[in-house]
Amino acid sequence: PEALNAFELISMSAGLNLGNLFDS
Amino acid sequence: MMCCNPVNKRDCPNNPESLAATTVFSVNEIEALYVLFKQIDRGAVEDGKINKVREKFKLKVFGPNKGGTLFADRVFDLFDTKHAQALGFEEFVRALSIFHPDAPIDDKIDFSFQLYDIKNQGFIEREELKQMMEAALAESDLNLKDDVIETIIDKTFEEADTKKDGKIDFEEWHALANAHPCLLKNMTLANLRTLKNITVTFPEFVFHSQVKD
Prior knowledge:
The complex is a heterodimer of chains A (24) and B (213).
Chain A: H1 6-11
Chain B: H1 16-22, H2 27-47, H3 51-62, H4 70-79, H5 89-98, H6 105-116, E1 123-125, H7 126-139, H8 146-160, E2 167-169, H9 170-179, H10 198-201
Antiparallel strand pairs in B: 1-2
Helix pairs in contact in B: 1-2, 2-3, 6-9, 7-8
């Protein structure tokens, strides 16, 4: 994680997965 | 296949043709999205509590253990553009349109900046970034020591804050996002390209789409 910038780390987080909307 | 709970075009409270004209979606896709929307909305309507809409949305997107997160509230607020604490279908479609693979990249950059500008100040401060990092790490069950978090933030500001004023404004965010396309990865949902296959997920839609693209 130290090699990432902060926004990369945030965008990889589980909290931003709108794809779950399409799970039946 | 018989359908016990049909959703058809007449059920759609908004004009799908009008929405299709102002988003990347076709009329058929908007009808398909309405089926999805009703899945989120139905429980809330039956419950009769307006805040239940927010809870249903968060539950659907973030799962049962992620209900109280910073990002859950932030994403909902950006979808709820009328600040009604309710998920209107038109706002739902317009927000999802930004996540379409064919949506303009500038729209994705704009939306993601709003997402990270949690105080709506027009810029991202160091403290906000740290707050978001800590929320993201907690949601991902990752543990980083505070000095590691501070180092990552230092490096991020060193690169992003080109004006050296201690904050990341929209122009700087635009440059950073263009330099690191992976920052926008979550701004594209491949599922939206295959909405025409919505019948795989929602079989009841088979008989009720009345428009052919």
